[in-house]
Write a structure and sequence with these properties.
505 residues; 19 helices; single chain; mainly alpha
Length: 505
């Protein structure tokens, strides 16, 4: 990677992480405030509709965001054609979702769902218009603009939801939040993009984009189905109130941390696409990416898992205590998903959409089996199944990927093992400390966090953990400095070892 590209990646990561940190704060504020203004039933209703929107979003994008970002060359005419394809898909999906309101009502026996589904169908149309504006900002590495847009959208959406809830709007406050967020993202992306699409023209072929996109859709559908089977199962078997509890625990953990993992793809995928020919640099990016996600997200997840009881009491209130064990399961699930997430970057950056789909289907079968089996033990059993899925597929994912494309398998396994050992120790230390004290909730949180972090610091006596720490510190330092000729964040180590080269082959 060239120094300028490395610095662009680092600055992009800094902007993206900064924006996502702000969005996580807003997400937590949303959970804390709105959970006290609305009921589990309100959240259960919206959770059902968001499953439908999520399916529509996969088709609405049609993989064309990744296709346009990953493409070595993209003409203005192709960009315009992709815009109109996404808009057309958005229109069709909005109409289909509007018409699905009555079947959804009959399936869930909730008449309130009719109005919610019909109103929120407009989100698919709005997002269809936004798609290529966002894609072009990603392609141009304009991460600062994207960060500002995301933060403004989150602030306005949360503010509108709080005001609506205080006025007694009930679940409509959550509907308003979704619509305001989508509208703000559209306006911001259009203003930052500064281009007006011309009419569709057959002179600019986009067939190869569509073929790439279809494979992305297929793999995304498989992944989404696996991720949402638990929501559907809880809603269908245990009702909207149980689903509301389940959804709040999920939003507090999985959704918040997804806001870091997913947008980081907008930094990682364009950069990895450009350096894929340099195998050593590419491998370094994959290794450091797993460590950054593993330690960066794993340590806070470990603390939350150990301190789940005071976290739920403080964030949601005593009326949500049933969500405590769910929170712990979701922390473990997010940890394992984070360790495997860089594999998705490899698939997309190297154009392996068809292979990604095939692996996603296997992972889907494993996850569904775990969740269905867990559902016989109740809502907590469903959450345990959500954790069991990524536990089983993490190792499988690297074996599968290594048979398709060169990756440093041994380094990834060892790095992941180090992350898991450290985070499990932090969880145990924080849990033990909080259960030994009889104090104010905030003091329990503080003491447990201090004990967990202290236990984690003990690992720094081991040379391998000190190397990991130096690698991560170098990565962070590059984000805030402009030293000409500094190595890119994808190259924290100058070379890969002979063992890594052997495993890669």
């Amino acid at each position: 990677m060239t120094p300028s590209l490395g610095h662009s990646a680092a600055r992009g990561a800094m902007m993206t992480l900064g924006a996502q940190a702000a969005k996580m704060v807003l997400q937590l504020l949303s959970v804390v405030i709105l959970s006290r203004l609305l009921t589990p039933h309100d959240y259960g209703l919206i959770a059902i509709v968001l499953v439908i929107i999520g399916i529509g979003e996969i088709f609405r994008d049609f993989g064309l965001t990744s296709a346009s970002v990953q493409a070595p060359e993209l003409s203005d005419g192709q960009r315009d054609n992709l815009f109109w394809i996404n808009v057309g898909i958005g229109v069709i999906l909005a109409v289909l979702m509007f018409c699905s309101a009555w079947p959804v009502h009959l399936l869930m026996h909730e008449p309130d769902l009719i109005g919610i589904v019909q109103v929120l169908s407009v989100v698919l149309l709005i997002n269809g218009v936004t798609t290529q504006y966002r894609a072009q900002l990603m392609r141009a590495l304009r991460f600062r603009a994207m960060a500002v847009i995301d933060i403004v959208a989150a602030v306005l959406a949360l503010g509108s939801a709080i005001v609506s809830a205080l006025m007694g709007a009930g679940y409509w406050a959550l509907v308003i939040q979704q619509i305001v967020n989508s509208l703000t993202l559209l306006v911001g992306a259009a203003l930052a993009g500064r281009w007006l699409p011309r009419w569709y023209s057959r002179r600019h072929p986009v067939g190869h984009f569509m073929r790439f996109g279809w494979n992305m859709v297929a793999s995304s559908l498989a992944s989404y189905a696996g991720n949402q089977v638990d929501t559907v199962l809880v809603g269908a078997r245990f009702g909207t109130t149980a689903l509301g509890l389940y959804n709040r625990a999920y939003q507090l953990i999985s959704s918040s941390f997804n806001q870091i993992r997913s947008p980081l793809s907008s930094v990682a995928i364009p950069v990895m696409s450009r350096v894929q020919a340099d195998l050593r640099r590419f491998d370094s990016f994959v290794i450091s990416g797993q460590l950054a996600l593993g330690f960066g997200l794993g340590i806070p997840l470990a603390l939350v898992a150990g301190l789940a009881d005071p976290v739920v009491r403080i964030a949601l209130g005593d009326q949500w205590l049933a969500a405590t064990p769910l929170l712990r399961f979701f922390c473990g699930s997010s940890m394992m998903t984070s360790l495997a997430f860089v594999g998705y970057w490899v698939y997309v950056s190297r154009g392996l959409a068809h292979q990604l789909f095939r692996y996603s289907m296997v992972a889907l079968v494993i996850r569904v089996a775990c969740v269905v089996a867990g559902s016989f033990l109740g809502v907590n059993g469903v959450a345990a199944g959500v954790l069991a899925g990524p536990l089983l597929t993490w190792t499988l994912s690297w074996i599968w990927l290594s048979r398709i494309t060169p990756i440093p398998v041994r380094a990834l396994w060892l790095g992941g093992a180090r992350v898991l050992i450290l985070t499990c120790t932090i969880t145990a230390a924080s849990w033990a400390t909080s259960h030994q004290l009889d104090a104010n909730l905030w003091l329990l949180l503080l003491a447990g966090s201090a004990a967990g972090l202290a236990a984690g610091c003990i690992f720094l006596v081991l040379p391998v953990y000190r190397r990991d720490a130096r690698s991560l510190v170098g990565f962070l330092r590059l984000m805030v400095t402009r030293q000409k000729g500094s190595p890119g964040p994808t190259d924290p180590r100058p070379t890969t070892s002979a063992a890594e080269d052997h495993d890669r082959r």
